[in-house]
Amino acid sequence: MSTIQIRHPHSLPPAQARQAVEDFAIKLGQRFGLDYRWEGDVLHFKRSGVDGQVALVPGALLVDARLGMLFAAMKGPIEQEMRRVLAERLG
Known about the structure:
Layout: E1 2-9, H1 14-32, E2 35-39, E3 42-47, E4 50-57, E5 60-67, H2 69-72, H3 75-90
Antiparallel strand pairs: 1-5, 2-3, 3-4, 4-5
């Protein structure tokens, strides 16, 4: 199993940060077929071979994703797409 861990700082108000995370999940869901759900300030995402979460903390988002064997070979492109979408949504 391979992991992706990203800390992405931001200066958005909590409601805007939450919407940006929702947009992030929708974009990745369309690209990789992820399902997601909120539990408080943590968005959990999952699909076969991939699961993780995005936690909203003051001033930052913490992304923690676990990739199964099949997706571990694609870790670089997946992490790059996550970082790109975060930068696009949160600046």
